[in-house]
């Protein structure tokens, strides 16, 4: 990384007030708020408290800008992106909207975060599709296992880009090729990779990609976005509709029109008026990602993880449980030890915020972290191991 880029990361760290007292390794749960986010939300609250102007158009211009921003971060075009409420929003569009017949199969990993599973379960109950769970191997959903699970009735593969519990990054290129070969819809829950791993959804040929922004995108809770490929757009039956799914040409003074055409864009699948405070927060946050660049963020995070991994691999008390393979690693590193739950409690008490998931401590490393955070964690890990 060039000294200029490294300096940008150091400057960006200053935008996160928590870094003055805590080490935050928990962006895979929720991202911390930056000062620009706080100011953007507060200034919108001030406008609404003051009520001297009609600010309702700000939501439309901000959402439009956000669609373009998110599109640019994932290699898509603005019309292919809609603002969502969370990850689940876009997953519903895919699971209830894409053409499938009763008896068609949806493939889902047996180590999947429940978000995908429960949406699919509801689709199974109401549309008559069948969920087929892919048998993982050592808690990894291998390409071979997926291919074995594909049968004549399989219509969709729905999977997390990055697994929430150990950070295993599924190879979207390989999976997309598999979906092409077997003519399957490819639906991706992107939340655990969004903002920290580069992705090019159009080039990859994904059908639907959906991500909340409350984690790695460092935005308010209850917001996200989704991508819908042009090739499936026309065939999606809206699972829900909204008066803002049609084009009013920004004229909201005369509303007795009931023949407006739907947007020919992903925003057709947005739902009603916006969570405007969230939009303002999202906009402030996305600027950070545009400024740093996701490839740089990935490089930054992986370098910090390398430092932590070098320590853990050297220490007989700790075992790394994440994949370290280049194509499968992410910004989540997990490791375990005897009494890992006690260790997690100790770490939180000492000001190092992280969680344990499925038997391992989960460290989520992000753009505001630096070497001093890793060193502080290593210091605590040394102390804990010595005491055992
Ligand atoms: C892989 C994955 N998908 C989805 C979610 C959350 O879904 P939503 O944004 O809809 O709440 C999480 C974490 O909470 C997750 O780890």
How does this structure look, described?
The chain is of the alpha/beta class and 388 residues long. The protein has 2 domains: 3-32 and 293-387, Aspartate Aminotransferase, domain 1 (Alpha-Beta Complex); 41-291, 3-Layer(aba) Sandwich (Aspartate Aminotransferase, domain 2), CATH 3.40.640.10. The protein is built from 13 helices and 13 strands. It has a 7-stranded mixed β-sheet, with helices on both faces. A 4-stranded antiparallel β-sheet has the order 9-10-13-12, with helices on one face. Strands 1-11 form a two-stranded parallel sheet. Helix 7 links the parallel strand 5 and strand 6 (185-189). The longest helix is centred in the last third of the chain and has 21 residues, at 294-314. The radius of gyration is 22 Å and the shape is globular. It starts with a helix and ends with a helix. 43% of the residues are buried. Bound molecules: pyridoxal-5'-phosphate (PLP). Residues 86-88, 113, 115, 160, 164, 189, 191-192, 212, 224 line the site of pyridoxal-5'-phosphate.
Output the CATH topology of the largest domain: Aspartate Aminotransferase, domain 2
* Unreliable parts: none
Assign the CATH class of the largest domain. Answer: Alpha Beta
**Main sheet specs:** 7 strands, mixed
Which strand order spans the largest sheet, edge to edge or round the barrel?
2-8-7-6-5-3-4
Helix amount: 40-55%
Q: Based on DSSP secondary structure assignment, what is the total number of beta strands?
A: 13
Question: On the 0-100 scale, what is the average pLDDT?
Answer: 97
- Class from helix and strand fractions: alpha/beta
H/E series:
HEHHEHEHEHEHEHEEHHHEEHEEEH
How many structural domains in the coordinates?
2
Tell me the CATH architecture of the largest domain.
3-Layer(aba) Sandwich
Q: Hey, roughly how much beta strand do the residues contain?
A: 5-15%
Say which molecules are bound, naming each kind only once. pyridoxal-5'-phosphate
């Amino acid at each position: 990384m060039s000294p200029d880029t490294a300096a940008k990361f150091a400057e960006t760290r200053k935008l996160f007030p928590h870094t003055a007292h805590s080490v935050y390794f928990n962006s895979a749960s929720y991202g911390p708020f930056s000062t620009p986010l706080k100011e953007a939300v507060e200034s919108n609250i001030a406008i609404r408290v003051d009520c001297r102007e009609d600010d309702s158009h700000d939501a439309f211009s901000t959402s439009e800008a956000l669609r373009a921003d998110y599109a640019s971060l994932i290699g898509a075009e603005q019309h292919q992106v809609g603002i969502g409420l969370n990850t689940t929003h876009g997953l519903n569009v895919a699971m209830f909207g894409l053409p499938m017949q009763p008896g068609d199969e949806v493939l889902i990993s047996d180590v999947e975060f429940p978000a995908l599973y429960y949406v699919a379960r509801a689709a199974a109950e109401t549309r008559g599709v069948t969920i087929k769970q892919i048998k993982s191997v050592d808690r990894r959903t291998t390409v071979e296992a997926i291919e074995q699970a594909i049968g004549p009735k399989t219509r969709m593969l729905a999977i997390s880009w990055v697994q929430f519990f150990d950070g295993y990054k599924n190879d979207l290129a390989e999976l997309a090729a598999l979906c092409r070969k077997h003519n399957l819809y490819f639906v991706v829950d992107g939340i655990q990779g969004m903002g920290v791993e580069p992705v090019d959804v159009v080039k990859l040929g994904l059908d639907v990609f959906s991500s909340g922004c409350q984690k790695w995108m460092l935005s308010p809770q209850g917001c996200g976005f989704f991508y819908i490929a042009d090739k499936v757009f026309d065939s999606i039956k809206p699972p829900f509709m909204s008066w803002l799914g049609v084009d009013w040409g920004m004229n909201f003074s005369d509303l007795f029109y009931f023949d407006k055409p739907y947007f020919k864009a992903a925003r057709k699948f947005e739902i009603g008026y916006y969570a405007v405070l969230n939009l303002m927060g999202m906009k402030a946050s996305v600027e950070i990602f545009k400024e740093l660049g996701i490839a740089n963020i990935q490089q930054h995070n992986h370098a910090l993880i390398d430092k932590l991994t070098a320590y853990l691999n050297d220490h007989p008390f700790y075992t790394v449980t994440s994949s370290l393979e280049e194509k499968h690693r992410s910004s989540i590193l997990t490791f375990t030890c005897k009494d890992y739950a006690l260790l997690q409690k100790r770490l939180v008490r000492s000001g190092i915020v992280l969680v344990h998931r499925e038997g391992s401590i989960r460290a989520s490393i992000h753009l505001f972290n630096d070497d001093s955070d890793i060193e502080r964690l290593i210091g605590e890990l040394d102390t804990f191991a010595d005491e055992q």
